[in-house]
Amino acid sequence: MSALQFPCTIFKTQKKIEDYSASDMHCGDLSEFQLKRAFHLVDVSTRVNPYTLTKITPFNQPQSRFYGSRSEGEKISRQECAKILFDEFRHLSRTFSIYGPYSHLIEKMITHMQNGNGMPFQDTSLDSALKKHILNDNSKNNTRLLLTKVVGKNIDWGKGYFPLAQKKELTKAILRGKLPKFYRLQDSFNGMGITVHDVWATHIAIKSLHTENERYRALVNYKIQDHFGLDSEDISALKFNQFRFFRIWFLLQRYNLFGFKPFMTDMETTVEITGRRDEN
Fold first, then answer.
1. What is the C-alpha separation between 181 and 184, in angstroms, rounded?
2. What was the pLDDT predicted at 70?
3. Are 121 and 265 in contact (CB under 8 A)?
């Protein structure tokens, strides 16, 4: 019987890393007519009208009884309109990131959408959030804890290695568990729910495994990727469409006058698992 060689990938989601064809990665593909007719994006901003490229005054807001009259706001360029929309986008984001070590991330990611031209985004705070999520979760379906049991149970202690034939047990352990995602109650306020929330793709690998004196120590690497973008299903849902924050986001991304590119959010961390032979 041969030994499993490390590093070794033990799990990949069906959704792929670097999937730029995903529906929430589309940009600049919708007209003014489509945005208004299909998604009801009429009242988008309180500061500018992105369709007429004019600043909004108290008399040309959609809710004003003078709306539609000949008096219009100051005409502005497409670039100036986008700048104003992004400033409003950042301002509105504070409602979703009230406190905590990750509250700064959403504004940083909005600025990256504005200036990054679709380049991937990484931040040490995101990696730290992922690590804390994995280590602080002591529920029975935590993949880290499930792996801890399976590794110790299947090691060939006589030969001091993990058998290649038992690799499938590692994958089964992950499938029984719950992958780290940021939709806990605290994520609604600490900035992680609005920056990541769900996760598009996850890869899990065991980087190393050492056995000695009937104890083992392994390093497990989590690599996850999300998309900072909205698709049609997102904006059609009331929980998103009711907020001006998401209406501005969708318009900046999907309106053919702007077409700011969404991007991949990359997070990665490595955690240690340990155990004894007699624990299993």
1. 8
2. 38
3. yes
Taking the CA atoms of residue 92, residue 97, residue 98 and residue 103 in that order, the dihedral angle to the nearest 10 degrees is: -120
State phi, psi for 122 to the nearest 5 degrees.
Answer: -130, 150
Structure tokens at 209: 């495994």
Q: Give the global pTM.
A: 0.89
Both tokens of 211, joined, read 């056995």
Q: Are 24 and 262 in contact (CB under 8 A)?
A: yes
CA proximity to 206, closest of 142, 151, 140:
151
Distance set, CA 276 to CA 149, 150, 162 (Å): 10, 12, 14
DSSP string, 186-207: GGGTBSHHHHTSS-SEEEEEEE
The residue count for the chain: 280
Mean predicted confidence (pLDDT) in 234-246: 94
Query: Would you say residue 69 has pLDDT above 50?
Result: no
User: Rounded distance, CA 32 to CA 155, Å?
Assistant: 61
